[in-house]
Amino acid sequence: MKFYKHYLLTFSCLFFLVSCGSKFKSQPNKEITHDMLSGPQLNAQEYDDETGAASVRLPPKGTLPQGFEKNMMGMDLALADRTQSPLKNLPSEEHIQYAELGEEYYNISCKICHGETGAGDGKVASFMVRKPPSLLSLQARTYSPGRLYQIISVGKGLMGNYHGVIVNKQNPKQNQKLRWAVVEYVRQLQQNSQR
User: Fold this and answer.
1) Is 129 among the domain residues?
2) What's the angle, vertex CA 90, arms to CA 170 and CA 94, rounded to 5?
3) 24: DSSP letter
4) What is the pTM of this model?
5) Using 50, 70 and 90 to split pLDDT, how confident is the model at 114?
């Protein structure tokens, strides 16, 4: 019986040491199911015509994801130029409230690249290969409010969209107005720079 315990202890220690050894770390992972690791690489909701592989099922027609907000402008520049801010016709108290929210969300999302005054001199601008444009430039000043809103919502050039960043999670119906508030704040920065 003593030998049995001795062999069991020796075998357990040996198994533990072998399983922790560095010589096995260079071996590839073991596939439990066929093609688990080497299957087709697809992005979300992507379909490969050649193999017929799909990453996930497409949602049924006519359904919308929770919290979905349809962007009617898309990349249509003419429509963006014609679109007016819904904040224009608000009572003065509510307009002031949105002006403060515009400044708050600009400071959270935009200031780091575009800078405090909108001159494109934010904290990370010096580390970027291509500097962010100045919001005070003649080109930015000539953009309609709808075009600025579109750039925030869809993105432009190297700037990604902020559609899902400038949001109010407690009240998603307010998200569009928050982005318009940032547009109004950018206009305020442009006006202040002319003085």
Assistant:
1) yes
2) 55
3) G
4) 0.64
5) very high
